[in-house]
Amino acid sequence: GLVDAAFIGxxxxxxxxxxESVESWTLERGERVTGIPAAVLKxxxxxxxxxxRAQICWTLGITEHVTGxxxxxxxxxxxxxxxxxxKPGAGLNPLRGQNNVQGGGDMGAIPNKxxxxxxxxxxxxxxxxEKAWGLELPAKKGLHLSEMFEAMGRRDIxxxxxxxxxxxxxxxxxxxxxxxxxDLDILVVQDIVLTxxxxxxxxxxxxxxxxxxxxxxxxxxxxxVQRCRKALDPxxxxxxxxxxxxxxxxxMGHDWPELTSEDAWDELxxxxxxxxxxxxxxxxxxxxxxWPCPDEEHPGTLxxxxxLWTDPxxxxxxxxxxxxxxxxIDVLDDDFPMRLTTVRRLDSYNTGVQTDVLSTAPLRESxxxxxxxxxxxxxxxxxxxxxxxxxxxxxxxxxxCYDTALRPGLTWMTPHASEEADVNVLTAEDYDPKSGTAxxxxxxxxxxxxxxAGT
Length: 455
Known about the structure:
The chain has 455 residues and is of the alpha/beta class. Helix content is 29%, strand content 16%. It has 3 domains: 97 residues, no CATH class; 200 residues, Rossmann fold (3-Layer(aba) Sandwich); 112 residues, Barwin-like endoglucanases (Beta Barrel). The chain has 15 helices and 18 strands. It has a 6-stranded mixed sheet with strand order 14-16-15-18-13-17. A hairpin with a 4-residue loop joins strand 9 and strand 10. The longest helix is centred in the N-terminal third of the chain and has 15 residues. It is globular and about 65 Å long.
């Protein structure tokens, strides 16, 4: 009674292959692999499967692994098993890390997709964009970020243009990343502040803050596109990103006109069917619309995949995806016996580029290695003791802070305060071959007390 057999039979495919792939995964095996008691796993499974409406939300704890895509596919499998998709209160919801991460993907800021998630390697899609843009486009997808750093290391890429990103501190194995960036023939950085990456740049282009100094749109985790309005003039020589790109194109000999944010948006609408009905005026009128919104009479789509509940089924069935478990690449051993994972705190975001100004905020905490009291006792570490944390890539020094929520053997740090303790000196470059996302969540480390440290 824990699966929705009727839904599986009507709306999915590949169930038998999926069932065979999980038959060996008993509760006891799950406990051995995860450390979570079998009884807890059973209770959780029953709670999810028997709920009238159940939704799975996740963030980087699922995706920042060498198996990140398979982890997401496993969540999709759970939703399909129980029929928790395509209806109110159910579904799958990846909580994007910032207000427009979803919008970046929608616009084609990923190496294998054009705007509207059209396929770069589809001849039909490519010809459509070639006609619209008046140029010949590559027939193969581009490199993701991890592949770009590999190519820079080989000198296959010798010039880099960075917009709104701080890879000198956000990339795994940051020491290596900074060397690769420093060895480029030319590095151009376009950003709102002088990041660690911008400090390595040959050219810095100051840009306006999109959320208050420029016009445009943002798209959130529920696919809702909303207008973003300029409230302030950007300081000094800073300009909106669109103006910078257009001016750069003109200086390189291209006949680009003066463009408004609405001009750019209307071009997107002409090429992305799921955005076609979202004019600026309609976004203003409705306070935002959810894609797909294929024409100007369409109200937007509140719930995706409702078609899965039609009888007979509209469109193709959704496939189950058998996946294989894989242990973290960075293995534990006698030299590196503990596990480090990276997390984010409420008061900060990523490498602190946008939140360092809040260093005096009451919620702000200094960087530390969070460790279980049991591990601290075993290592003879009083709360606040200064330690050296080492991985196979490098070492940092940081105080420890007890965390009673941690199980022995597990620690955590944030990437927010690189100037205090750069956790990405420790993280590994190994990445998911399907997504290119590095394994920030499973680092093998050693913790050693510094002589005379402690309180």
